[in-house]
Amino acid sequence: MFQDTIFALSSGRPPAAIGVVRISGPRAGDALRLLSGKASVPPREAKFARIRDAAGEPIDEAVVLWFPGPNSETGEDVAEIQMHGSRAALAAVFDTLACMDGLRPAEPGEFTRRGFANGKLDLTEVEGLGDLIAAETEAQRRQAFRQMKGLLGGRAEGWRRRLIEAQAMIEAPIDFSDEGDVPDDLSAPALAIARELAGEISAVLAQGRRGERLREGLVVAIAGPPNVGKSTLLNRIAGREVAIVSPQAGTTRDALEVHLDLKGYPVTLIDTAGLRDSHDPVEQEGIRRARARAEEADLVLWLVDAGAVAPELSSTLKHDNILTIINKMDIKSLKTEDIFGSEILFDNKFISKIIGSGRVSRETVVPISARDGLGIDRLLSRIASLAETTLGGAEPALVTRERHRHALQAAVDALNRAGTLPTRGADDLLAEELRTAATALGRLTGRVDVEDVLDVIFRDFCVGK
Q1: 5-121, which class in CATH?
Q2: Which end of the chain is more exposed for a tag (fewer CB within 10 A), N or C?
Q3: For 214-391, CATH number?
C-alpha cells in the first residue's frame, strides 16, 4: 500500500543516552545495509555495527535489528538502529537516509497508521496506544493498556461476526430464492441473534461514561468570594507558586489549572476568580467564566473565610456536589487539635454556626488552613475517594471515547429496529438493519471505510510512533 520508506527517531528528544531510529518500508533493508555496512542482518537478532554515512565515514557505534515484513510492527520491512542519542550523530544518520531515493521522514503517527492499514492493529487498539502514550496516572495506564490489547476491539469483532452470521441467514433465502436446499424459515434465529446482541451492547453502554471521564480526569473547581484563600489553596496542593496571591480582591481573572495524581486517578484542580458584584468589565468576564467552570466541574470546593462575620455560602451556585471548605482556621482562637485531630470536633462555634444554618451538612464541611497546610491531607483524601468512586469500578470500562459510544449506539438502534420486525415478510428490511448494525461495528474497529476519522486519530501521535 505504501511506496515510500519512512524513517524517524522513535525515542526521546536528544540529547539522550540512547537514540532509536526506526525505518519502515520497501527500502528499509537497503538503508540498513548502507548504514551498517553489513550484507545481511539475521531477523530479530541484535547485532553490533559501526554506522557510516554515504561516503563511508563513521558516525557512531550501534546495535541494529532487522524485522522483515509481514512479521513486524508495521507489517512492512522494518530496520531499527539503537545508537547514542546525540544531536550530531542522529542528524548525520538522518541526512544519510534523506539522500537515499524513496526515503523520507515519517509524519506523526505514520508507523502506527501503516500497522493499522496492514492489519496489525484495529482502530480501538490504535486509540489505546495513543492513550497509553498520553497516560499520566496508573488508572489511565491500565485502561489504555487494556484497550491497546483489544479489550473493546475483540468484543466488537465478536459481535460483528455474529451479525454476519445473522445476515447470512436472512440474505441466503433472498439471494438464492430459486434454490431448493435453502431453508426459508431463518428469520426467527436471525432475529434472536439481533435481540441478544442488542442486549449485550446496551449493557456496555449502560456502564456510563466512566471510561471517557477517566481519560479526561475528575475536574474540581475552587470557588468562593474574593480573598478567601483560593489561590493559596491551589499553591499549597500544587506544591509550587502557580497562582499569584494578593490581598487585593479580583487578582485572579483567568482560571488556572493544576493536574494531580490522587491514588492513581487523574484530577484537574481549577482556581477561579472570586465571585462578587463588580463594575470592572474585565473582572466581570472573569467572574462569568469562573461561575461557568465551577458549574461544569465534577466537584466544587467552596471556600469560606473563618474570620468572616457573615460567611458567604454557595447558594447562588448551581451544583449538586459541593464541599464547603472553611479556610484560615489557623487565625481563630482555637485549639488546633480540636479542628485538625484524627476526628473533626464539630462543636466548634464557627463550624456549628455554618452547619446550623441548614444550608450545608456536617458531611460536606472540611476545615483547613491553606497557609499552614493543616487539614489538606484530609481534603485530598476526600477528593481521592470521589475520584475512585467516579472513575473506578470493579470491571474495566470498554467505552473510552465518544466515538466508541456513537458507533455502539448506532448498532443498538439498528438492532432494536430489527427486533420489532415480524418474523415473516420483512426479510429485506431485516437484512438492511443488520447491515447497518454491522457497518457501525465495523467503523468502530476500522473494518470498513473510516477515512473521515483516521486523520483526527493519527494527527495526535508523535513522530516516530
Answers
A1: alpha beta
A2: N
A3: 3.40.50.300
